[in-house]
């Protein structure tokens, strides 16, 4: 299986980021994991463009900026010269509208429910094969 350079987590919950980092590390799918609890900081990290990010796990329900707002801002960045990255919505939302919106998004490649597990990580990594 391919190993990625960098995976980014954007989720406002510290414990969720900790667990997801642990699962990604145990599955040995990346050299580095960067996590942001504040989506605005995550967006700034992408805008800076100093580090290559291959995969982004993005939560939907966050207080400062929700996942959909993050995506809108990322898509503007992408059009103005940002790098394309694989975006996976990682959420506890079972709202059919969220799931449909993710499937219709040109940016989101997959919608998965929290928490990350071995099988989900393998499914996501198949996108890179």
What would a concise description of this structure say?
The protein has 129 residues and is α/β, with parallel strands linked by helices.
Key words describing this protein structure:
single chain; 129 residues; alpha/beta; Rossmann fold; five-stranded parallel β-sheet; 5 helices; 23% strand
- The whole-angstrom Rg is 13 Å
CATH topology category name: Rossmann fold
CATH top level label: Alpha Beta
Q: What's the number of structural domains? A: 1
CATH superfamily: Response regulator
Count, helices = 5
Which percent band covers the strand fraction? Answer: 15-25%
Please mark out the parts with pLDDT under 50 across 5 or more consecutive residues, or reply none: none
Structural class: alpha/beta
Order the strands across the largest sheet as they lie in space: 2-1-3-4-5
The chain-level mean pLDDT equals 92
Description:
The structure is a single chain. The chain has a single domain, classed as Rossmann fold, CATH 3.40.50. α2 packs parallel to α3. The chain is an alpha/beta fold. The radius of gyration is 13 Å and the shape is globular. The chain has a five-stranded parallel β-sheet.
Provide the fold topology:
Elements: E1 4-10, H1 14-26, E2 30-36, H2 39-48, E3 55-58, H3 67-79, E4 86-91, H4 96-104, E5 108-113, H5 118-125
Parallel strand pairs: 1-2, 1-3, 3-4, 4-5
């Amino acid at each position: 299986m391919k190993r990625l350079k960098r995976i980014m987590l954007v989720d406002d919950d510290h414990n969720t980021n900790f667990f997801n980092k642990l699962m990604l590390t145990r599955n040995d799918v990346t050299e580095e994991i960067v996590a942001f609890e504040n989506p605005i900081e995550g967006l700034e990290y992408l805008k800076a463009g100093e580090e290559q990010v291959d995969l982004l796990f993005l939560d939907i329900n966050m207080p400062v900026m929700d996942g959909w707002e993050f995506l809108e801002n990322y898509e503007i960045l992408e059009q103005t010269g940002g790098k394309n990255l694989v975006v996976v919505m990682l959420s506890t939302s079972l709202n059919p509208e969220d799931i449909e919106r993710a499937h219709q998004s040109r940016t989101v490649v997959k919608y998965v429910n929290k928490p990350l597990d071995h099988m989900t990580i393998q499914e996501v990594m198949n996108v890179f094969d």
